[in-house]
Design a protein that fits this description.
The complex is a heterotrimer of chains A (about 300), B (about 280) and C (about 250). Chain A is mainly α. Helix content of chain A is about 75%, strand content about 0%. Chain A has one domain: MetI-like (MetI-like fold, Orthogonal Bundle). Chain A has a two-stranded antiparallel sheet with strand order 1-2. In chain A, helix 1 crosses helix 12 and helix 3 packs parallel to helix 6. The two termini of chain A are about 30 Å apart. Chain B has about 280 residues and is an all-alpha fold. Chain B has a single domain (about 65-275), classed as MetI-like (MetI-like fold), CATH 1.10.3720. In chain B, about 75% of the residues lie in helices and about 0% in strands. Chain B is built from eleven helices and no strands. Chain C has one domain (about 30-45, about 80-245): Rossmann fold (3-Layer(aba) Sandwich). Chain C has helices spanning about 40-50, 75-80, 100-110, 115-130, 135, 150-160, 180-190, 205-210, 230-235, 240-245, and strands at about 1-15, 15-25, 30-35, 60-65, 70, 85, 165-170, 195-200, 215-220, 220-230. In chain C, the strands form two sheets. Chain C has a six-stranded mixed β-sheet, with helices on both faces. A four-stranded antiparallel β-sheet of chain C has the order 2-1-4-5, covered by helices on one side. The longest helix of chain C is centred in the middle third of the chain and has 14 residues, at about 115-130. Chain C is globular, with a radius of gyration of 18 Å. The relative contact order of chain C is 0.18. The interface between A and C is small, with 6 and 11 residues.
Chain lengths: ~300, ~280, ~250
């Protein structure tokens, strides 16, 4: 069969746009990689195994912000999960018509609120509340647990950042879980109801069916939390701390970049170190989202026929 | 036995309900306090809030946000059309020629970069645009915002395009429409509300983006700049800088700017809701 | 001269062999019916004729296909389709266009009408031919979702006719509509054959008997029987054809 010349022409007129999309994104990655080399060469692996930020003496180690990124992202993901699973179930199972429209609109509304507004609200309102009602009591009564072992001196801690980012990604995770839950064919639900299961038992069965999708949502939520900058830098307290306690100020990689990149050109290696840290986050985020997306689509192909 | 199951059912519902309420409380509280704090500042400052520059840290004046407001409007006005055009045509290409290597590459790259930390974009554009030009600029901000929102707009467009049943392509081909006509006369009109939603959501995204602007637009607040090649400012950036300061009047300015940003977002959100009402295929 | 001539046509989709050595000749100005159980490849024959098979990227066609004197596999598919109308199994009027525009677009795209007056005339002619005019003449600017399934299908027929095709392909056009509408559609089809060659896929023997001049029976991608309609209906030679005509498969 012969393809049409018209198709060829159409294809060619579209190429400039797609090539520019591709070029912009690929160039971004390449630049990041090339800029990171200097730091990798100078510090090697110690860049990721030590924890120093000493531009005056050109000594750098990114362990603290990397651990901080991971810790806050775990906290954020757990927070998001605690809220989004119930919210998704409520939306899918218990509310209908107008109430459902309103509730799903609120979730949608939440997901689009600029993060800077979350950041502002979290630093002005959420942080003090968390300090008084969560961090202070936990550090007094549960201080034998290592992660609660230090007294929160300020309201801006790794814990605060984790919870704040968690709240901001909750709508995103909720939407994914809700969509997966809704896409489970109705026959499964009917099967559950047919054997006399209660709502709770039905939800339990359906949720276990959607487990891979929930895991994919967790991974994607984690990736999103990892890249979050604005909220992290305004709530984490920005200090080079490495330890087991989450009630102390810390850094995430993005927060480190946001607060140090402005003056980094003044010091040897500082820029390159920051580029390499951005590269690490970027690569991890891309890998995670790739895993999450393929898990999700594999699950869809299997369950939703 | 049945009683116990029934009770478990009730408890489960109660837990779900309580957690859900806690989950949506933050956003409601956030909207209320932002509007309350911000609007009171705006009202106190009067129209000059929109026309004057930010105050000195210790002055009694509330001052205004004119540089950031104009900057945000300019950045959005420039970045939005560029993003939409590139994303729309790319998604059309991927939808029409999905087996082509170029299409496959575009799809994979756009999807995996949807999760790119926006601060990394800011750093890259700093190198690509700011350093060669020797100055922060609106242009650099536009480039950064375009990179950030491209994967986002692309994903929206391709989801809508893929949702069109194949039968309409067949119908269009059967009356001898070319591929180009099929796209412009059939596909795009069918998803026109989706296109509108994408434009609006991308606009909201661009308006609210902070991290991509950190190292690109500069923080030009001593006057209103309309230069594309010179430094400028943006609302999110102003808020970001001012909430980290201890000065009372800076924080007030930040609340005012945040309220304005939130209102803009709420208007866009309501517009998208109106746009999707009554879609029928 | 034939409207369609196929010689040793083989179609593969991926590694499935869909059509096997199909050869057929369809005379001008006749109603040619293709019958067979579902999945036997009937629709694929139609989609080879107007190259809609190209939409399926895994499809491969071998052999020679002559349509209206053109070498169909070599001709630009968009050019080829100018002469061929098609009505699909499920009605698919364009949801974003009014009833009028749904018909008019086909005429406009193919240069059938030069001005508004011509266009009005073509739209009216097509809707009358499709036996829909009386039902929609007062609401030409409504949208098709307000029509019943059968009306939608006749609208699709009108759309196909408005391009003034030489060949009309009908893919089980009555499968998803009620009997009353189905009869109207059949009447419309028979009335067309003076001007147009009609190729129809169906699996209703009675429908085939009512409209067909020629019949081909397809099973598992092969032609098992073909000839003038009365010959096939009166003296089917294969057991398969007999079963099919009795409605057993």
């Amino acid at each position: 069969m012969k393809a049409s010349r018209k198709d060829m022409l159409f294809f060619l007129t579209l190429t400039p746009f797609s090539i520019s999309l591709l070029a912009i994104l690929v160039i971004a990655i390449l630049i990041l990689i090339s800029r990171s080399f200097e730091a990798f060469n100078a510090f090697g692996l110690s860049l990721f195994t030590s924890s120093i930020w000493d531009p005056e003496h050109s000594r750098y180690g990114l362990l603290a912000p990397i651990v901080g990124s991971i810790t806050t992202s775990i906290l954020a993901t757990v927070t998001a999960l605690v809220f989004s699973v119930p919210l998704a179930i409520l939306l899918a199972e218990y509310v209908h018509d107008l109430v459902r429209d309103i509730l799903s609109s609120i979730v949608e509304l939440m997901s689009g609120v600029p993060t800077i507004i979350y950041a502002m609200w979290a630093s002005m309102y959420l942080a003090p509340i968390l300090k008084t009602y969560v961090m202070d009591p936990l550090s007094i009564y549960l201080s034998f647990i290592p992660i609660f072992s230090c007294k929160p001196i300020t309201a801006f801690t790794i814990f605060t950042a984790g919870i704040s980012i968690g709240i901001s990604i909750t709508p995103y995770v909720t939407a994914m879980i809700f969509e997966s839950y809704e896409s489970i064919p109705t026959t499964y639900r009917e099967a559950c109801l047919g054997i006399g299961a209660t709502r709770y038992e039905t939800v339990k069965v359906l949720l276990s069916l959607a487990k891979p999708a929930v895991i994919a949502s967790i991974i994607l939520g984690f990736a999103r939390a990892l890249g979050e900058t604005t909220i992290a830098v305004t709530t984490i307290g920005n200090s080079m701390y490495l330890g087991s306690c989450i009630f102390s100020p810390g850094y995430t990689v993005s927060a480190l970049i946001a607060s140090q990149f402005g003056n980094a050109y003044l010091y040897r290696y500082a820029e390159s170190v920051l580029y390499s840290s951005a590269l690490v986050v970027l690569v991890v985020a891309i890998i995670l989202s790739f895993i999450g997306l393929s898990l999700m689509s594999r699950w869809r192909r299997r369950v939703v026929v | 036995m049945y009683k116990w199951r029934k009770l478990k059912d009730r408890i489960f519902f109660a837990v779900i309900l309580i957690l859900s309420i806690i989950a949506i409380t933050p956003v409601i509280h956030l909207i209320v306090v932002t509007l309350a704090n911000g609007l009171s500042v705006i009202i106190r400052a009067g129209p000059s809030f929109f026309t004057s520059i930010p105050p000195a840290p210790t002055s009694k004046d509330v001052g205004g946000i004119a540089p950031s407001l104009v900057g945000s409007l300019m950045l959005t006005a420039l970045a939005l059309p560029i993003t939409i055009v590139i994303a729309l045509f790319s998604s059309i290409m991927v939808n029409e020629f999905p087996r082509n290597p170029l299409s496959i590459a575009v799809d994979v790259v756009a999807k995996s970069l949807a999760s790119i930390p926006t601060i990394a974009v800011s750093m890259v554009v700093y190198l690509l645009v700011v350093v060669p030009m020797g100055t922060f600029s609106t242009l650099a901000g536009v480039v950064a915002l375009t990179i950030v929102s491209l994967p986002y707009a692309y994903t929206y467009f391709s989801t809508y395009l893929r949702s069109i049943p194949e039968t309409y392509r067949e119908a269009a081909y059967s009356i001898a429409m070319s591929r180009w006509k099929t796209v412009t006369r059939v596909f795009l009109p069918i998803i026109r509300r989706g296109v509108l939603v994408t434009v609006l959501m991308t606009m909201a995204r661009i308006l609210g983006e902070t991290a991509a602007l950190l190292f690109t637009v500069g923080r030009y607040r001593i006057g209103v700049s309309t230069s594309i090649l010179g430094p400028t400012d943006a609302l999110p950036l102003l808020i970001f800088d001012y909430i980290l300061t201890p000065y009372r009047n800076f924080q007030e300015i930040a609340w005012g700017a945040a309220a304005l940003l939130l209102i803009a977002y709420l208007i866009i959100f309501i517009a998208t809701k109106l746009a999707v009402r009554g879609v029928k295929l | 001269m034939y409207a369609v001539e196929m010689e040793n046509v083989n179609v593969y989709i991926g590694n499935r062999h869909i059509l096997k050595n199909i050869s057929l000749k369809i005379p001008y100005n006749s109603v040619y019916v293709i019958m067979g159980p579902s999945g036997s490849g009937k629709t694929t024959i139609l989609r080879v004729i107007n190259r809609l098979i190209d939409v399926n990227r895994d499809a491969r066609v071998e052999g020679t296909v002559k349509v209206l004197g053109f070498d169909a596999l070599k001709k630009d598919p968009y050019e080829l389709r100018r002469y061929i109308g098609m009505v699909f199994q499920t009605p698919n009027p364009f949801p974003h266009m009014t009833i009028y525009d749904n018909v008019a677009i086909a005429a406009k795209i193919n240069g059938v009408a030069k001005n508004r007056k011509d266009l009005d005339a073509v739209v009216r002619w097509a809707l009358e031919k499709a036996m829909l005019w009386d039902e929609v003449k007062d609401r030409l600017y409504d949208y098709p979702h307000q029509l019943s399934g059968g009306q939608k299908q006749r609208l699709c027929l009108a759309r196909a006719l408005a391009m003034k095709p030489k060949l009309l392909l009908l893919d089980e056009p009555t499968a998803n509509i009620d009997p009353v509408n189905a009869r109207k559609l059949e009447e419309a089809i028979v009335s067309l054959k003076d001007e147009i060659t009609v190729i129809m896929v169906t699996h209703y023997p009675h429908q085939a008997a009512r409209v067909a001049d020629y019949v081909t029976i397809v099973y598992d991608g092969r032609i098992v029987e073909q000839g003038p309609a009365n010959q096939i209906f009166l003296r089917p030679t294969t057991e398969l054809a007999q079963k099919l005509l009795r409605g057993e498969i």
